[in-house]
Design brief:
Layout lengths: L1 H36 L8 H17 L6 H10 L3 H4 L10 H31 L52
Helix pairs in contact: 1-2, 2-5
Keywords: Membrane, Transmembrane, Transmembrane helix
Length: 178
Amino acid sequence: VFIYLFVLFIIISYNNLVVLTSSCYTNHGEWLRRLGSLKATNLKETMNVMNEIIELFNLLENSCMNKSNMEKITIMYNALPNILKDKILMSSQYTPETLYEIIKDRYTVIRYQMEYNNNQTHNQRNSNFNPRNIRRNNNPFINNFKNSNNDYMDIDNIEGKRSKGNRRNTKQYHRNKY
């Protein structure tokens, strides 16, 4: 009876082991397929995709299959949208954790810049400032500037040429051949 129970226990544990290993391999295939298909199409999806990639890496690491750091970095870099790929240089010195932190930092900076620019244009549209309302004669320093008609061009310094208004250029050298 004892031997019968022992054999039955071994058969049941072997069947459970076969079921666990077969489900492990099917999950590996699904996880690897999912890793290959993940790609952030815009900036808003970036952190969700990165978090999902990190979770899949942890699942693969806890089970019987583990990827190298270079493969993980390549998968993470390829999942980035183009706006972040331009800001991040891929290096073999990164670990997946450091690359995740770099992506997170650049993501927050770009999001802040985009929100700041949107708020600035929104504030400009809503303000009462209109550049067409500024008149030229409202300048209190208008007489302090030189009149542009009195400035001679370099081409007027050539011998025999007259300046604007048929006035002789006083800056010209009369015997200069150049």
